[in-house]
Amino acid sequence: MRITGAQLTVRLLERHGIRCVAGIPGGAILPIYDALSQSRAIRHVLARHEQGAGFIAHGMARATGRPAVCLASSGPGVTNLVTAVADAKLDSIPLIAITGQVPRALIGTDAFQEVDAYGLGISITKHNYLVGSARELLEVIPRAFEIAAEGRPGPVWIDIPKDVQNEAIEIDELPWPAARQQEATPLDEAALDAAAALINAAERPVLYLGGGVIHSLGAAALARRLAETASIPTTMTLMALGAIPADHPLSLGMLGMHGARYTNLTMEECDLLVAVGARFDDRATGKAAEFCPRAKIIHIDIDPSELSKIKQADVAIAADVGRALAALLPRIQRQPRSAWRARVVALKQEFPLAMPGADDPRTHYGIIRAVASCLDESAIITTDVGQHQMWAAQAYPVSRPRQWLTSGGLGTMGFGLPAAIGAALAEPERTVVCFTGDGSLLMNIQELATAADEELNVKVVVLDNNSLGLVHQQQELFYGKRFFASCYRAPTDFVAVARGFGVAALDLDRVADPLAALEEALAAPGPCLVRVSIAVHEKVFPMVAPGAANREMIGGLL
Amino acid sequence: MNAPAAAVRAGAPRTVLEITVHNHPGVMVHVCSLFSRRAYNVEGILCMPIGDGTLSRIWLLVNEDRRLEQLEKQLRKLEDVRAVQRHGATHEVFVRLEEFFR
């Protein structure tokens, strides 16, 4: 059959199960958009900014675990995508970015809307391509899907010159997606035995789960079984929230910079740290040299370059964490570990997470808890980045994998709203709530128009302190209260702005019964925005100063 | 930026890496950017196609550094890298070239 590069691209996306893409057209990608207009299988969601399109794809990929696609044109389309692609690299998200490029003959001439997408992509992708001919697409696109999803997931960027999109070639048939290869390398049995021996002999072990436990299908349930079998208190990184339910008796919640006091104190006392799919990020470990100072370390990760990168492991296992946990479990002795569990309970009683105002929906913790009380575990929660993100991480009872979508590694303000749109597109039966702050929301607020376009079930909850709260907090605590560039002068009327985009809006400050109004807003179909004011002096506590050891927590005492 | 030759002559312990890669434009940048983004200087680079030209071999001369193990792991993760081998500093590939750099 005779087919153009553009048609081939669209047909291959269809064949890889893509049913929805987000993007913005422009000159250099118009052939692909023309081919896309003929697709009956793929729905296109028109974003208002390419970064929005990138994070909509994030939402689809993070909610489902499957690769998702975003499209943009050359030049500014490319540079606007950069942040979303980098975010996917740091959080190991299978994102496939497809961009148009100027025709091959013009590459390198500073043509209109030409930027070096290939060069820009190198350090922020798992792999990237500049496609040299239409025939190359037959290999590049199927391989891109494999690379994005296999091993440690990550973004793949495919830059396609316009003349390659227009080039017609003769092919016999479309390639089918490659069957997923079984992991060829056998598990390291000796290391598994050594790990089991350490776990069985430990008196005060802690299980430390990272995002890899979410990425590896079924791994969260196995991690929970390991915790329950061996009675191991379990902490989660920001990326792993939901791996075991927040209300599980063995859950220690999130660790690190804004972890509860009892959580970090438990880490301080542990004699064995079992790290699974976690990479010892500095926000989790604090000063790495003083992290879990009394503990031996077992480190299981699919990426060998993560093992012993920050902390030397006593036992290191390079494997899919689900596969490793399944092989480890039969070697683990059931034991109650009563003394250690009693010690953790005592620490929790003495140093619990303090949530002042949690019963009042018009406070920072109260709004998070009130939203949770209106929803069940089918809801998806996205966040932006800042104080609201940490309050939500501390206070929202996340109870299943992929319920919690947040920008962890890159910490991108502006992530939350488009990610919520993507999650709602991928799982339309669920309610999706985006917790955001005024600073973060303003970074991609234009996507309210996309949510209105698509009539998506996205609820944006804005904790509005008219400032960059976490910057303000650091200036107060660590910069002698020299507040600078952290407070806005003119307040934004988010309710009016939302209505201007055609989105229903509610100001919790102006209703008599905030809980009832919130419940009604969350239950109504379609997008809405709920705004609540938060005092600028409210802080995320406890807090470990950047670079300090986790035992040196500030605030958060009852 | 032009200090490295002096560093080499100052006798910092060196290592030679032999990297087998797919032969296409951009592979060198993928490999070298792993070093440059870590502010890890590459002292010498050689690259030529091998066999039928679908693969190339890159030889890198680098200073011994405790980050080298992490870099080797990162190199192995690159889609276009097929194999990585570490050799001692006395490997003849760069020794023989020295006369061209006098």
Protein traits:
heterodimer, A: 558 residues, alpha/beta, 6-stranded parallel sheet, 22 helices, 22 strands, B: 102 residues, alpha+beta, disordered N terminus
Structure in words:
The complex is a heterodimer of chains A (558) and B (102). Chain A has 558 residues and is α/β, with parallel strands linked by helices. Chain A is 37% helix and 17% strand. In chain A, the strands form five sheets. Chain A has a six-stranded parallel beta sheet with strand order 3-2-4-5-7-6, with helices on both faces. Chain A has a six-stranded parallel beta sheet with strand order 11-10-9-12-13-14, with helices on both faces. In chain A, strand 21 and strand 22 (553-554) form a beta hairpin. In chain A, 55% of the residues are buried. The mean pLDDT of chain A is 97. Chain B has a four-stranded antiparallel beta sheet. Chain B is of the alpha+beta class and 102 residues long. The radius of gyration of chain B is 13 Å and the shape is globular. The longest helix of chain B has 10 residues, at 27-36. In chain B, strand 2 and strand 3 (55-63) form a beta hairpin. Chain B has helices at 4-9, 27-36, 68-77, 92-95; strands at 14-22, 42-50, 55-63, 81-88. Helices cover 29% and strands 34% of the residues of chain B. Chain B has four helices and four strands; from the N terminus they run H-E-H-E-E-H-E-H. The interface between A and B is medium-sized, with 12 and 14 residues.
Cα radius of gyration of chain B in angstroms: 13 Å
Label the overall shape of chain A: globular
Classify the beta-strand content of chain A into a percent band. Answer: 15-25%
Mean pLDDT of chain B: 88
General form of chain B: globular
Structural class determined from secondary elements of chain A? alpha/beta
Query: How do the strands line up in the largest sheet of chain A?
Result: 3-2-4-5-7-6
Biggest contact: A-B, 12 and 14 residues
> What oligomeric assembly is this protein in?
heterodimer
Measured on Cα atoms, how large is the radius of gyration of chain A? 24 Å
Distance between the termini of chain B: 19 Å
**Spatial separation of the terminal alpha carbons of chain A:** 72 Å
Kindly state the number of beta strands of chain B. Answer: 4
Query: Poorly predicted ranges of chain B (pLDDT <50, ≥5 residues)?
Result: 1-8
How many individual β-strands of chain A? 22
Sheet with most strands of chain B = 4 strands, antiparallel
Helix share, percent of chain A: 25-40%
What is the arithmetic mean of pLDDT of chain A?
97
